[in-house]
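Model it.
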Amino acid sequence: MKIRARVISRGDAEGEVIVSKRSFSFLGDVDAETGVVVAGDSDIAGENIAGKIFVFPSGRGSTVGTYVLLRMKKAGTAPKAIINLESEAIIAVGAIIAGIPLLDRPEENVIELLESGEIVRVHAGREGWIEVLSRLPDGPDGNDSGASRGSGRHSSNSEVSK
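Modeled.
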């Protein structure tokens, strides 16, 4: 399955998804030295975004967040790629200067479609797309019925679907 999206910052990445249903600020919501989300009101508090494909609706907060994202990239604690429903200037500039692929305006609501722990490929070139490489199994038989989408499970068990 490929989902088209608008390219904000070019690059390619593949990896595990971490999904937040809340807007995010790189200034104050994450420990830049570790990549761990420290905002107590976050739905992914305590999770590590380092080296993952970070999916969240939009950015919020101070322009300093741009430089926090660059600092995270230099420290090796930044996400591999970012996917927003609607990116804003702080996240966009941060991703561009840090060289982190960023897509927004996906043709499907990836916040509801994707689940933390699934594996995706992000392509942000002349065209942008997200390819779902593996989904988490839903039931005891491993069939992906979609019943638990958005349940917040964090499992690395997956099956490949195209």
